[in-house]
Amino acid sequence: MAFALPVLAGCALVAQNVVMAAMLARGLGLLFALIMNSLVGLVLLCGVALMSDSGASLTDAARRLQPWFLASGLLGTFFVFASLRSYRALGAAPTIALITAAQMVLGLLFDATGAYVIQPRALGLRAWVGAALLICGVALIVSRRT
């Protein structure tokens, strides 16, 4: 199950971008697609919170809200925006390859340094070689033949 969840999340992310790209193709606009993405998630999560604890978790979260909490939503919205724009400009595979490589490199740096709340982890040569191979694969995917 430890591997299944990230694999399913990766598949869901690609499917999400395809659905949102279809909205764009129907002339609904980028802003509409971003709003639908956020609205559906917000309604779903609020519904789950209301059903699970009658909204107590929402009330508690509202009491403890701090301005920097908004960064998560801003970053998530930027991610969806950038993905949609890149799908249209580059195609699905190059977009996914570039996103994956960026996540891998930043994830390795966060693991190695213990950034934010992550416990530092010693990364061996294999992790860095794996990242280098991933970057080489990305270069092959995004390079265009002329």
Spell out the blueprint of helices and strands.
Blueprint: H1 4-25, H2 30-53, H3 56-63, H4 70-90, H5 92-113, H6 125-142
Helix pairs in contact: 1-2, 1-4, 2-4, 4-5, 5-6
Can you describe what's shown?
This protein is mostly helical. It folds into 2 domains: 1-77, no CATH class; 91-146, no CATH class. Helix content is 79%, strand content 0%. It contains 6 helices and no strands. It has helices at residues 4-25, 30-53, 56-63, 70-90, 92-113, 125-142. Helix 2 (30-53) crosses helix 4 (70-90) and helix 4 (70-90) runs antiparallel to helix 5. The longest helix is centred in the first third of the chain and has 24 residues, at 30-53. The radius of gyration is 19 Å and the shape is globular. The chain starts with a helix and ends with a helix.
